[in-house]
Amino acid sequence: MKQSRKPINLPTLAVVFGCSALLLRRLLYALALDVRNLLVGSPLEIALWVLTAGVIVWVVASVWRLDGSNRYKDNFEPSLTAALGHYIAAAGILLTVLLPWYNIGKLVMLRRVLGILAAVGLILGGRNRKAGTRPLFLTHLAACVFLMVHMLGNYGVWSSNPQLQDYAFDMLGCVMAVLFAFYEAAFDAGMGRRRMQLATGLLTAYFGYGALSGSAYPMLYFGCAVWAVTDLCTLTPKPKKEEETP
What we know:
It contains nine helices and no strands. By secondary structure, the protein is mainly alpha-helical. The chain is globular and about 60 Å long.
């Protein structure tokens, strides 16, 4: 398979675009609120949505040409950076579910239990990534389940807000993180999809960094963004084997 220039800039650009969204959101809420603390029409909001639409198109166009082998060993080499990304995500989840420690309730306890399991899974997955061995699929599936429960638990708050902009990055960041964790688990189970893992990882990074402004869960989104951007499939895909071709 003839390959074009190695797109080593994809993870870096995802972070740069995410930080740009973060800056735009900070400026938006600093300069475009009325006396009722509601957003008024602003060129900053238009710029933010234009940037977001552009990033989505860029991600789709970039990963479309990166199809290749879906085998785990062809996509993931031993990586200390990827391991650290897992550990940072685990720390972000633990801090999110354990602080404040005095919160009680059935849903809070469920999130804590799932969050602890997700953190343990990510720590184990990080050890595998450092060693270059394929993790048990449950390690990443636990993170997927936790993020899904987190998303469903916050959906009421997000959807009831009259201003979509307030929680849009929280919602989209969580959705992308759920999908990224799912495709991580799929690779662990031998059913990986390169382009989907790359696309959801890059978008998790973009929306995760953008959500750091105004989110109630900054440590969670930061951890997931770092995990995603450090554990992408190789950007120089190997050709598919005959048995992989549908």
